[in-house]
Amino acid sequence: MNSHGKSSRPLHQILLLRGLAREARHWGDFPDELKRAYEAQGADLRVNLVDLPGAGAHSEMISPPSIDAMADFVRDRFRDQLAQEMEAGLPKATRRSLVTISLGGMIATSWVTRYAHDFNSVVLMNSSLRGLSKPTDRLRVDQWWRIPLILKERDIETRERRILEWISNRPDRRAEVLSEWVKIQLTRPVSPANLAIQLAAAARYKPTKIPSAPALILCGRGDRMVSFSCSESIAQAWGAKILHHPVAGHDLPLDAGGWAATMIAEWNTQNFATSPSKSSSESASP
Questions:
Q1: Cα dist. 16→2, 156, 221, 227 in Å?
Q2: Secondary structure (3-state) at 53
Q3: If you compute the radius of gyration of the chain from its CA atoms, what whole number of angstroms results?
Q4: 45 backbone dihedrals φ, ψ, rounded to 5°
Q5: Which of 24, 98, 178, 259 could bridge 49 with an S-S bond, Cβ 3.0-4.6 Å?
Q6: What is the widest separation between alpha-carbon atoms in the chain?
Q7: Checking DSSP bridges between strand 121-125 and strand 241-245, what pairing results, if any?
């Protein structure tokens, strides 16, 4: 701390985006794990959460039909948060990163390829992109039998348990979060229409550019929803660093949150100078 009571450590900022039919509350304790990981690297961290259109705080609205439109929606919400932080007199971060999972990775790709100055770096976890991987790898063909069982299930607890059994390889973690995930679906469910819109948008989206921002790709070799080869294809196409967790499933923050947080914190604090985000008339900075 300096003589004015302010921390002299660098301040980083992360925006977290979830994936298909999930919302901010599904991150669980991952934001706190990120903060501890950054603290271990000698940095402070501010975490922002934005729900996708049609999910979470925005579950009452109809989702837009394209990944680009979803990206524009969450970008506007993030700009609002930054403006509120400025009005509250909060210090501006020295480095800003977009951290995503699954469908969120497609939205992140759309965002950072069109608004290059909004973030200093981007992290994709267990994501996939059309044109880089086969459809049968983007949604593993050997797991398709699970889909009708989940979609036709009317009991919320049973449905959430089946989802967790698909995306998590840790029975202990599944048991810990099941009741909270049931509560989320009871209070702010994603409608079947919005689920269909998100699925169709994900299937159609094909990026036309490679992000200029440095990218870190994280994946779980135990992912039974999306083949980890999809992450490898992204890393190869982008020239990005990729790190594999040996056993984690699709919900990497749930199965290996401490590992993922540490990898993100080390990469963002040790590999890049903590210079402020570039200024731009199109920047997310208010």
A1: 30, 26, 22, 22
A2: coil
A3: 18
A4: -140, 135
A5: 24
A6: 62
A7: unpaired
pLDDT digit string (tens) for 60-80? 999 999 999 999 999 999 999
- Kindly give the interhelix angle for 30-40 and 252-270, rounded to the nearest 10 degrees: 30
pLDDT confidence band for 284 (50 / 70 / 90):
low
Domains of the chain plus CATH, in order, are 11-270 (3.40.50.1820)
pLDDT by residue (tens digit) across 119-170? 999 999 999 999 999 999 999 999 999 999 999 999 999 999 999 999 999 9
Residue count of the chain: 286
Residue 278 pLDDT exceeds 50: no
Going across the sheet that includes 241-245, the strands are 44-49, 11-17, 95-101, 121-125, 215-220, 241-245
d(CA 252, CA 213): 23
Q: Are 100 and 122 in contact (CB under 8 A)?
A: yes
